[in-house]
């Protein structure tokens, strides 16, 4: 049983030495337990927060403990009512080959899914995040301008496509020519802009001649700085993530705070943070809509698949720098 543990807390951007690969005997299920074999491991930006021990909405990973993460697993052995060997489940068993579970938080998946890993992406947590953030907080109306940050990633790509389905004009922001071309040609964004371009702020302004009605925030930093002056009166900003700052404080924001507050007031802007775990009541509606959109090809779910648990640390380090292209998942078993 291989597992990847948190070896030390990162200083700034994580490096390989912050993780450690350990080998231990395969655990044995006792009464009331089952043994899970990981097939797919999800790698997500929130894991950077769990590596720190400061206060947040969730507890940190302890030093020496297995890194947390959502997984799709096969039940290998079960001494627990309701689960049988061979069952496919969605679990939260972390960065390891095998794990014991008492069934808490484990959900059974249909046994013969074409792409079980989608339960970690478009049909799972990131998809629900896009759905709730855009529809419940962003509330895009036909013809409105919706701007999406990190627009080719797990959350962003779903936001772009749902916004198009709702009749909005979509401006996608992504890193590099390949991602911006994908946002236009495959995701259907009306315009796509590279945030590495030195003229980024000007290009964004030109792309939004009628201002911005909804800004789906995944990034923060200079991307938000370019968006703020363009937000219309009554604009909605679902605040989903701030990945540009996860590796530590960026430039001094103190001077920018009065400008932000004044903008919110004068232009009656709604800026609302949300954590997807609070929105489980939306899962049934989400699953129904998303299953339909995927089946009809109206939503395309690109995955970036990394082979082998031992590659998870490098893939995660790369995710925080834009190295992934689509939902990042590790093929474990
Ligand atoms: P992605 O698949 O989008 O991967 C992260 C992407 O962020 C990178 O590929 C990169 O894309 C972009 N990025 C990284 N650093 C920067 C930077 N400095 N400036 C601009 N872009 C950057 O990840 P997810 O879709 O899983 O997550 C997207 C966001 O949503 C994250 O902030 C995450 O924390 C948040 N989130 C929040 C949830 C909630 O409950 N509130 C739930 C799930 C996710 P590029 O190359 O295009 O720059």
TrEMBL record:
<keyword id="KW-0560">Oxidoreductase</keyword>
<dbReference type="GO" id="GO:0032440">
    <property type="term" value="F:2-alkenal reductase [NAD(P)H] activity"/>
</dbReference>
<dbReference type="Pfam" id="PF16884">
    <property type="entry name" value="ADH_N_2"/>
</dbReference>
<dbReference type="Pfam" id="PF00107">
    <property type="entry name" value="ADH_zinc_N"/>
</dbReference>
<dbReference type="InterPro" id="IPR020843">
    <property type="entry name" value="ER"/>
</dbReference>
<dbReference type="InterPro" id="IPR013149">
    <property type="entry name" value="ADH-like_C"/>
</dbReference>
<dbReference type="InterPro" id="IPR041694">
    <property type="entry name" value="ADH_N_2"/>
</dbReference>
<dbReference type="InterPro" id="IPR036291">
    <property type="entry name" value="NAD(P)-bd_dom_sf"/>
</dbReference>
<dbReference type="InterPro" id="IPR045010">
    <property type="entry name" value="MDR_fam"/>
</dbReference>
<protein>
    <submittedName>
        <fullName>Zinc-containing alcohol dehydrogenase superfamily</fullName>
        <ecNumber>1.3.1.74</ecNumber>
    </submittedName>
</protein>
<feature type="domain" description="Enoyl reductase (ER)">
    <location>
        <begin position="34"/>
        <end position="330"/>
    </location>
</feature>
<dbReference type="InterPro" id="IPR011032">
    <property type="entry name" value="GroES-like_sf"/>
</dbReference>
């Amino acid at each position: 049983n291989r597992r990847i543990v948190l070896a030390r807390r990162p200083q700034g951007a994580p490096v390989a030495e912050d993780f450690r690969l350990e080998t231990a005997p395969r655990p044995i299920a006792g009464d009331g337990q089952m043994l899970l074999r990981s097939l797919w491991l999800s790698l997500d930006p929130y894991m950077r927060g769990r590596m720190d021990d400061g206060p947040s909405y969730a507890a940190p990973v302890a030093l020496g403990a297995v890194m947390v993460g959502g997984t799709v697993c096969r039940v290998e052995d079960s001494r627990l009512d309701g689960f049988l060997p061979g069952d496919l489940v969605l679990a939260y068993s972390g960065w390891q080959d095998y794990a014991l579970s008492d069934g808490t938080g484990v959900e059974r998946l249909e046994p013969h899914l074409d792409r079980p890993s989608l339960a970690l992406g478009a049909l799972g947590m990131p998809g629900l995040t896009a759905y709730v953030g855009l529809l419940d907080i962003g509330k895009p109306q036909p013809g409105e301008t919706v701007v999406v940050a990190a627009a080719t990633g797990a959350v962003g790509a779903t936001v772009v496509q749902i916004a198009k389905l709702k009749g909005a004009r979509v401006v996608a922001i992504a890193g590099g020519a390949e991602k911006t071309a994908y946002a236009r040609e495959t995701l259907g964004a009306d315009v796509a802009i590279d945030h590495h371009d030195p003229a980024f702020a000007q290009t964004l302004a030109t792309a939004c001649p009628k201002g911005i009605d909804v800004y789906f925030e995944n990034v923060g930093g200079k991307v938000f700085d370019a968006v703020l002056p363009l937000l219309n009166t009554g604009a909605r900003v679902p605040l989903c993530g701030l990945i540009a700052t996860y590796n530590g404080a960026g430039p001094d924001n103190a001077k920018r705070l009065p400008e932000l507050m004044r903008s919110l007031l004068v232009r009656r802007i709604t800026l609302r943070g949300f954590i997807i775990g609070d929105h489980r009541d939306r899962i049934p509606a989400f699953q129904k809509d998303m299953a339909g959109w995927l089946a009809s090809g109206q939503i395309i779910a690109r995955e970036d698949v990394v082979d082998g648990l031992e590659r998870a640390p490098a893939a995660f380090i790369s995710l925080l720098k834009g190295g992934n292209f689509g939902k990042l998942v590790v093929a474990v078993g």
